[in-house]
Amino acid sequence: MDVRFVVVPDAHAAAAAAAALLVEVADADGSVVLAGGSTPRHAYEIAAEAHSDWGGVEVWFGDDRCVPADDPRSNQLLVREALLERLVVGPTVHAIPTGLAAADAAAAYDAALQGEPLDLVLLGLGPDGHTASLFPGAPSLDVRDRLAVAAEPGLEPFVERVTLTIPALESGAHVVFLAVGEGKALAVRRAFAEEPSGATPASLVRSRSGTTTVILDAAAASLLG
Ligand code: 6PG
Fold this sequence. Notes:
Elements: E1 3-8, H1 11-27, E2 31-34, H2 41-50, E3 58-61, E4 63-65, H3 75-82, E5 92-93, H4 102-113, E6 120-123, E7 148-151, E8 161-164, H5 166-170, E9 174-179, H6 185-192, E10 211-217
Parallel strand pairs: 1-10, 2-3, 2-6, 3-5, 6-9, 9-10
Antiparallel strand pairs: 4-8, 7-8
């Protein structure tokens, strides 16, 4: 369950490193789980610029907020603006149906994900150690029989979420965390250099049979030692 660290000088270089992995998936007509939050936006923009034909790609979401698809808090909106609208040929997009009640949306997404291979799983990291919408101490951390569940937020924005579960995320052949900035440094240390714990959900997510990579800028890596 080793992790491979890629530490680069700044946030732009971290986005470029993540974008290069996205482009590999696009080149190979693979499948990818995309992260929400603010950090991956630039990676999506670089990837769209570098490779504009995503025609053979399957795009999934690691989590989404239960808001309309045009709400600024929507991860779907982020991906649409930063990636999909910039492509010449778009991928097949498996959006989380956030118009439904969270439990119904999670059940639908769980069913859609069954048996789907996930080549690349891109994840963010919260300052509290959460990833996707798996928050510290949440019941979702113990779910083993579902690939997606409804989740309560532990941080802003305080709207209901749908999140992939640990079994879904760890099925990724390549699991990649992207984190930048000093504000993530302590969470990075807890998630990748200390004992796994439900207090730091990202510490529980590693590719089961493939590779786990952590892409960091120097500030986020500063407490790794
Ligand atoms: C979400 C996420 C979440 C995110 C982290 C980091 O939808 O909230 O997918 O896990 O990746 O909170 O968010 P930032 O990139 O905004 O710091």
